[in-house]
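Appendix B. One record, verbatim.
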Amino acid sequence: MAERAALITGGSSGIGLAIARALGEDGYSLTVSARRPDKLEAAVADLVEAGIDAHAVPTNMASEEEMIALVEEHTERFGRLDVLVNNAGVGIGGAVADHTTKKLDMQLDVNLRAVYLMTRQSIPLLKLAGAEHHKALIVNIASIAGKFGQGWLAAYSATKAGVVGLSQALHKELGDDGIQVTAFCPAFVATPMTDWVDGVPKEDMIQPQDLAEAVRYLLKTSPACRVPEIQFIRPGDAL
């Protein structure tokens, strides 16, 4: 059994990969999932080359069966779960009047339903870790759009607001079990997901490592300190 273990969804690039690398450097054994096997295998190979105990499990986050299998494979390999990072997400722009039901359903499935289901499947292991050291952690990657709804991103904004609300509810349900739940609400982060953004160079965006360092911070706080939400904004961003 690993001394500490983490499971990160959407971990083949960007925020998820940065968090995976930080946790791996800190001694965590990792299960990393993403939808595209080739990209995921390449990312995990880099982690392993750096001396990190990491395992790749390609997963479609719209499939309940695949998510159940993901948690089961993590359990079989590592035997414990101390940190769950629900990072997988999709954003599809467009006016509500023009948005197809398929695009709506995809965002609901991956951005909100998957967070709920992954957490539900992981709670038994997280409770065991919480009982052991009172510092099990769930990080749900929401968005600043979940705090301040954005035009032409209505479905995305609604799902991320749902992630914030789900995180608040989980905090109340799991807080006495040694599990802390924190929603991350970043503005533009320099990842492939923001390649569409015009007028904001990547170097002027929030960096994935900023969120990785926030995970490290949460794991260093005392069991009596709970941080329900962190907003990450750029200089001049409106509040």
